[in-house]
Each structure stands twice: as structure tokens, then as C-alpha cells.
Design a protein that fits this description.
The protein is mainly α and 113 residues long. The chain is built from 4 helices and no strands. The chain is 80% helix and 0% strand. This is DUF5658 family protein.
């Protein structure tokens, strides 16, 4: 059984969630880019669509800047329960988004193969 000293504190949990959000967001950006480049999908977010159409590099910067900002904020903000709930909500949302990416990858691979 773990003792209190080995359990992560609230600030460390916020940092861990922020880092996981960054990783999921980066995966979302990569899968979206692959899907858009190959014509498999269309960007549903009009703001991100216009950014992607103007500059793919800017698309990646915007996609990673937001979670990096959150990662930074998680190191300076006091860990509050509502912040953790919002971050967990964002994690759930990204899991759903990445699941949809996985679904279209499977469907496309079945169609191609």
C-alpha cells in the first residue's frame, strides 16, 4: 500500500493531466494533418480550418500553444477542484476526438486494403 509521501500531490496531478492533454493534443494535430493532407477528412472547426489553409506550421503552433500554456499555468496556479474537473473534461473530450480519428483510420484502412 502506498503511503502519503509516494502519492502525487494536487499540483503534480494537475501537471500530469496538463502533460497528458499536451500529448493528446499533439496526436490530434498529427492525425488531423494526415487526414487533411490525404483528403480523408475535413476540419470541422472553421477557425482551425482557416489556420490550416493559411499555414500548416501555424496550425501546429496553435494546436500545441494552448496545451503548453495550460502546462505552464499548472505549475503556477493553485490546484483547485474546479480546475481539475475542467482538465478532466478536456481529457475526456480529447479521448473522444482521438477515438474518432482511430475510427476513420480503421475505416480507411479497411477500404484501401
Amino acid at each position: 500500500m502506498e503511503n502519503v509521501k509516494t502519492l502525487p500531490n494536487a499540483r503534480q496531478r494537475m501537471y500530469n493531466i496538463s502533460f497528458l492533454l499536451f500529448c493528446l493534443c499533439l496526436l490530434d494535430a498529427i492525425f488531423t494533418d494526415i487526414g487533411l493532407r490525404n483528403g480523408f477528412i475535413q476540419e470541422a472547426n472553421p477557425f482551425m480550418r482557416s489556420i490550416y489553409n493559411s499555414s500548416i506550421l501555424l496550425f501546429y503552433v496553435v494546436k500545441t500553444l494552448l496545451p503548453l500554456s495550460l502546462l505552464y499555468l499548472s505549475t503556477i496556479l493553485q490546484p483547485k477542484l474546479y480546475l481539475r474537473f475542467m482538465m478532466i473534461g478536456a481529457l475526456i473530450l480529447y479521448v473522444i476526438i482521438l477515438s474518432s480519428h482511430l475510427l476513420w483510420i480503421i475505416l480507411i484502412s479497411l477500404k484501401i486494403g
